[in-house]
């Protein structure tokens, strides 16, 4: 009788391992997708910071160049010299 109970129990639980492995695999896939989304978001923020700094330095450089041109024009007062700075 004990033999019949164990064989019946094994037959009834045959698909349990498959179901558990599918659940675990699903959880791992969802975790991997969530982690990749967070990582890509952080990467985008880092690239935006880099682009923002490049834009800031370019604008600062243009302002400095313009201030130099105004100062040079006031000192020498001719349009030819001002336009030659290019």
What would you note in describing this structure?
The protein is mostly helical. It has three helices and no strands. The radius of gyration is 35 Å and the shape is rod-shaped.
Present the secondary structure layout.
Elements: H1 2-12, H2 16-76, H3 79-84
SSE pattern, N- to C-terminal: HHH
Number of helices: 3
Number of domains: 1
Radius of gyration, taken over Cα atoms and rounded to an integer in Å: 35 Å
Please outline the major beta sheet: none
Low-confidence stretches: none
Taken as a percent bin, the fraction of beta residues is: under 5%
Number of strands: 0
Helix percentage: over 70%
Give the helix/strand class. Answer: mainly alpha
Shape: rod-shaped
Whole-Å distance between the termini? 101 Å
What's the pLDDT, averaged over the residues?
Answer: 83
Keywords:
mainly alpha, 3 helices, 86 residues, 0% strand
Could you provide a short overview of the structure?
With 86 residues, this protein is an all-alpha fold. It has one domain (2-84). It has 3 helices and no strands.
């Amino acid at each position: 009788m004990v033999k019949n109970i164990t064989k019946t129990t094994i037959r009834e639980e045959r698909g349990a391992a498959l179901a558990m492995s599918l659940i675990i695999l699903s959880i791992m896939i969802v975790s991997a997708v969530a982690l990749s989304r967070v990582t890509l978001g952080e990467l985008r923020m880092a690239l935006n910071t880099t682009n923002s700094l490049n834009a800031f330095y370019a604008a600062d450089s243009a302002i400095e160049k313009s201030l130099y041109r105004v100062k040079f024009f006031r000192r020498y007062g001719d349009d030819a010299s001002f336009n030659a700075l290019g």
